[in-house]
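Training component of the fellowship. As part of building independent skills, the fellow (R.M.) carried out the full modelling exercise for a liganded target. The chosen ligand was 2-acetamido-2-deoxy-beta-D-glucopyranose. The inputs are recorded below so that the supervisory panel can assess the work.
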Amino acid sequence: MLILYGLLFLSTSVISIPAENTTPQVSLTLYYETLCPFCQNFFSNELAPTFLDKDYGPLFKYLNLVPFGVAEVMNSTAHKIVCQHDEVECQGNRFHSCAIKHIKDKKALVNYISCLMDSVEVDSEEDEEYPVDKCLDKVPDGLFPKIMKCYNSEEGWKLLEEYGKMTKKFFNDGEEFVPYVSFNNEKNDDLAMEAIEDLKKIMSRLTGKQYSSSSEEEYD
Ligand SMILES: *[C@@H]1O[C@H](CO)[C@@H](O)[C@H](O)[C@H]1NC(C)=O
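Fellow's submitted model of the complex:
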């Protein structure tokens, strides 16, 4: 069995040697929170148009979304988490955590979250609930009940706390700011800030792709 496995491994590794003209790819992790205006702006005006672009999309090795932001878990058993933009933002972060879990098609996910980020008012903080009924036409068929079930149960809290741990680990208990764009899991504040201004430019720089700011989105 071991030998067989070895042979299989050998043959797949031979096959997967990249062709000469393979485009280098980058992994992107976005640390964000649902109600910060810069996060909303970045997601809808930079990340989504880049990820869904027919030329830039293939440059992503993977895309990781981490919706926790500048928040603190005060008491895990009591589900007490304090978010920068109050309770409604914690709800939003939890809701996004569930959407990320249940929408496996990354393009559909980005399209949906972009719509949410674009349509939730910045000043909707006080005494309101995160508007989970927005952008329903962007949710793939049959998945909304699963997202809601997650959101209204322990599953949502667990996912959110996982994202909290990832966020704390990444910032290593240092100063946190969002949106934060990390390439290939590295922490580079200058690059993160440049990427927020013009993601396509940085993706071009990291992959050697010729920069073009106006190409087409393929997904709708
Ligand atoms: C956390 O919340 C639980 C449940 O409400 C409570 O029993 C516990 O004392 C709290 N822990 C702290 C450290 O406040």
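The panel noted the following from the submitted structure. The pocket of 2-acetamido-2-deoxy-beta-D-glucopyranose is lined by residues 75, 77-78 (CB under 6 Å). Confidence is low (pLDDT under 50) at residues 1-13.
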